[in-house]
Amino acid sequence: MGNSPHKMAIPGFEMKLFRACEVPYPMKIRHVLLLFLAAFVPPARAYDPCVTGAEPTSIDLDLAVSDSRRIPVRIFLPADKNPAPVILFSHGLGGSRGGSNFLGRHWSSRGYVTVFLQHPGSDSSVWQGKKPMEILPAMKSAANGTQYLARISDVKGGLDALAKKNSDPKDPLHNRLNLECVGMSGHSFGALTTQAVSGQQAGLAILSREVQDPRIKAAIPMSPSPATGVDPGRSFGKVSIPWLLMTGTKDSSPSGISPTTPADRQKVYPALPPGDKYELVLMDAEHSAFTERKLPGEGKTRNPNHHKVILSTSTAFWDAYLKKDPAALAWLKNDARSVMEDGDRWQLK
Fold first, then answer.
1. Residues 348/317, Cβ–Cβ less than 8 Å
2. Which DSSP letter does residue 50 get?
3. 70, 118, 121, 295: most buried by Cβ count inside 10 Å?
4. Over residues 238-246, mean pLDDT
């Protein structure tokens, strides 16, 4: 090569080779190749919780949560067959495993096994087949302490049943579940269920011993409620795991089943201790904002951006605390407001 510099043509730029006396020839070639590759490798994509992955599959089955009780569940499985974090979801009063499935499809496309629990006694069987005048009394009757405790047992027994299926080589769920990383979510009565198993200390939860399940590592109560007649600080002051609360400025109790107001739902967040706690309050969101369908007595229109905000913030929360993704945590703390509209409130502590 001599001592004169040579030029090597690279698409898009030219690179002078180092003099032979300064850099060994093999190192020169490697250096050029690295620079060449760097010029054509696209930059890393910014974290985006709205992006969906491959379509998940779903299966319906019954879980034996105790010797005398079986509950229907709907499970969404991600396309990747490696063990995945698990998210449980508890429906509201009168709901079923088929409610709020838009959450499960999105979460599972992002790499989670999502399990929608159905709670007999406070599910759709409460109102199905009844005359219109019979529905409201039946719903009010089902919102009781017995059903509340049954729901808590469904969560605990459901996790036990899933663990057995995960360890059974003959089961379709064999080795699909990472039960070291479990999230819990629910709407309305399901939010009360979620609160109980993930750290609430007072209210109806005191009717059951050892209510909190240590297997649950993070929780998202949707339409949360404080315990009636109990100081919220006493109820929520010792919550030790990450919580994301979701509600709306018009999120009252549907059809007068309970006297819970939107202001009541916003009493939970101030009572939580600092550290990985979040609250989303959607402007004009009614109680059904966390479901696919409006409820009787609600307004005529729905804001489609509400579901976008719910999906993105919940996904980032799970990614941050179940997958330990630092990019997701940074998005929650710095960029979550980018998907929200004026009037939506986002706070963290």
1. no
2. T
3. 118
4. 97
Q: By C-alpha distance, which of 47, 53, 15 is closest to 34?
A: 15
pLDDT over 70 at 61, yes or no: yes
pLDDT, residue 204, reads 59
- Give the confidence band of 34 by pLDDT, cuts at 50, 70, 90: very low
Please state the pTM of the whole predicted model: 0.86
Which residues share a beta bridge with 114?
A: 76, 87
Closest CA to 247 of 222, 283, 278, 213: 222
Please identify which residue in the block is written with the tokens 């760097």.
Answer: 38
Question: 310-340: per-residue pLDDT in tens?
Answer: 999 999 999 999 999 999 999 999 999 999 9
Do strands 70-77 and 57-64 pair parallel, antiparallel, or not at all (unpaired)? antiparallel
- Strand boundaries in the chain, DSSP class E: 7-10, 13-16, 57-64, 70-77, 84-90, 113-117, 177-187, 216-222, 243-250, 277-286, 345-348
Which helix H or strand E contains 107, and what residues bound it? helix 101-109
DSSP structure class, residue 200: -
Burial class (CB in 10 A: 0-12, 13-18, 19+), 297: exposed
177-229 per-position pLDDT tens digit: 999 999 999 999 999 999 999 999 876 555 545 688 999 999 999 999 998 88
Class of domain 57-348 as given by CATH: alpha beta
Let me know: does 107 contact 314? Beta carbons within 8 Å: yes
**C-beta of residue 216 within 8 angstroms of C-beta of residue 321:** no
Q: Domain limits of the chain? A: 7-40, 57-348
Rounded Cα gap, residues 181 and 39, in angstroms: 39
Q: Give mean pLDDT, residues 103-111.
A: 98
Locate 119 and state its tokens: 């709670």
